[in-house]
Amino acid sequence: xxxxxxxxxxxxxxxxxxxxxxxxYPSASPYHLFAWGQAIRQAYGHDLLYLLARQDNEVVGILxxxxxxxxxxxxxxxxxxxxxxxxxxxxxxxxxxxxxxEAVKCGEQLNIKNIQLRGxxxxxxxxxxxxxxxxxxxxxxxxxxxxxxxxMLTSFKSKLRSQVRKSERNGVVFRWTGTDGxxxxxxxxxxxxxxxxxxxHSKSLFYAIMGKYGENARIGLAEFEGKCIGAGLILSTxxxxxxxxxxxxxxYNRLAPxxxxxxxxxxxxxxxxxxxxxxxxxxxxxxxxxxxxxxxAKSAPLPWYSSLSDYQNAVKKEQTKSTGRDKVSAIxxxxxxxxxxxxxxxxxxxxxx
Length: 353
Known about the structure:
By secondary structure, the chain is α+β, with helices and mostly antiparallel strands. The chain has helices spanning 15-24, 34-44, 93-109, 149-155, 158-169, 182-196, 203-213, 257-271, 287-293, 311-319, 322-332, 337-348, and strands spanning 6-9, 47-55, 58-70, 74-79, 89-90, 114-118, 132-134, 138-144, 172-177, 217-224, 227-236, 240-248, 276-283, 298-301, 304-306.
């Protein structure tokens, strides 16, 4: 008879066991690492509910969730917010089912309105729970990496290699940084988000991420004549690298800094033994999708699940307000950057996307 599965709420003392399990799990994303929740709690003050399953004292599954709560407006558990994936990881369906059942039980105790899971579950239909798939046209873009950047470069079409060299010929220089690169990264990122009409994350979140992830986080900067014109932040596990944020200044796009930025992220990943590079989510055939596909990335399903049985109806009601959101976005684009940087983080911490 197999030993009983014991599920507990993870604390900081469980971090080493938690992260060891994540690094050993081939499809785990860097967002599954304990550091993601720690950084969110440090920067935004959200509570964490990280469920840890053990059997015979061995970790057999995890379910990281963040509690987003705003009185009268918001009360949900998300696995995980501010990224594409971060759902349940388990050695088998039995462990997965027990973790999900425990999540539902915790949600009831907290009077949670919705539990959202992001990432492929092992079962098409989640047993003993009310989770249903959220309809979406979003997909992940993943690239299987070769053993070295040299092999990868030779696999690229000549046009792609030429575009990478173009940025260098234009005088764009790339360099890796750590926490000392947050200010340069943020100067580009916040401008780009304002131009897109979207509230920006707090700079404190990026400082927290760099501090909590340590050697598993890096910031790459593309510079021209001493000025940062492009920046990206990458996170890694033993097997996978993800790039949750990358931005360039639009007035310098003619210099192709994004090509140099992404090439160096791919180069670092391949040369450091990573097996997969996660470009993040896209909508098929849109601009970002085509940009990622040119590097050889392939589309993969990106199912999200909700505990709300009427989630789709709620989404449809929200969609009827899209005109209003478009107006707000248009106004946001005209707000001076300093003001957008002051107001944005106070809103962004409650937007789970």
